[in-house]
User: Fold these one by one.
Assistant:
Number 1:
Amino acid sequence: RREYDCEFLVFDETLINSIKLATMEGDSPMLNMGQTRWYKKPTKEFTYAVALDPSMGTGGDNAAIQVFELPSYEQVAEWQHNTTAIPAQVRILKDICTHIESETGDPNTIYWSVENNGLGEAALIVINDFGEENIPGLFVSEPIRKGHVRKFRKGFNTTHSTKVTACSRLKTMIENDKMVLHSKPMIGELKNFVATGSSYNAKLGATDDLISATLLAIRMTDVLK
């Protein structure tokens, strides 16, 4: 019998419908400020959600920041880097908020937050040392849940259930054209963001930090509503 050089094709179930993903292309940034890619000029008619998902900054996972315009849910800017230390990540968050304030003339339309799991704890310490009041806008935190005994920490804590809920919101919004994504790197991540067990993660060798920061922005907007 002959040996055929065959391999099985594995169909990965992506979070976003594969037909929808095939139509998503992305745009080049209109402006690069350092590592931050700006896709749209902030204006005073809108509100802005700025979400930081921190990382160690030692060359492993990327830290990422996403900026969305509300209520249009249009992506305005994003940043990602894997060798930027946490204090510099917070400074970039501040620079982004400062740029929005300089364009809109109004810090009251800016809402920002951070993921506070593990590494986020370090980011909270840096924000505290830096002075929350030195970052334009309002620091948004998730509401304290009833019967929750854990010491309250600012920002957002991601659990299995909050991640799955935010993923489902992201799926609905993108597939129903309720969210406008401009970033090619973000769309690239979505193409490799697949079902793993009862949740979703990047395929082996791929990243999902831009998605994580977007999920945080979605949770922020739920609180703001």
Note: The longest helix spans residues 86-104.
Number 2:
Amino acid sequence: FRPNNKWYQEAQALGYRLAQAGFAVITGGGSGIMEAGNRGAREADGYSIGLNIQLPHEQRVNDYVTNGVGFNYFFTRKMMLSYAAQAYVFFPGGFGTLDELYEIVTLIQTKKIDERIPVVLVGSEYWTGLLNWTREVMYEKFHAIAQEDMDIYTLVDNADEAFEVIKKSRQRENLFF
């Protein structure tokens, strides 16, 4: 996703609003949507943190990260991304995005992390097919999840709606920033 992309712009706007409200914006530190979130936070003079994965190709820390850490292993990086989160926000992305979404949803479902922390999916046009499949196949056809498991996440269409969900959520104490 490049700066002229709708989702990049929405992620940048959300990063800006969150930073203005005193939230640290923590991303995977890479390009695209991650860059957009970090860019918005930095433009608002907020905390713009990148937890990057060290790969042989493609992944680099974006220019808007003010504090960054590189990880060799995905599982360590994902643990750090989720550890002190006040919200989990997922924009359109690739397999890594889906991997991280399902891990967070599973941890909330199994009560390994606080279920009151919002999981926000931004972009109906991207997420609706997956959410329909979740309801129709996983829940209705195979009974592989419970009905309340589909309440773990909230679908929104833009940064303003995402921000409203996040600001209404319970604030966590003892943050490190």
Note: Residues 172-177 have pLDDT under 50 and may be disordered.
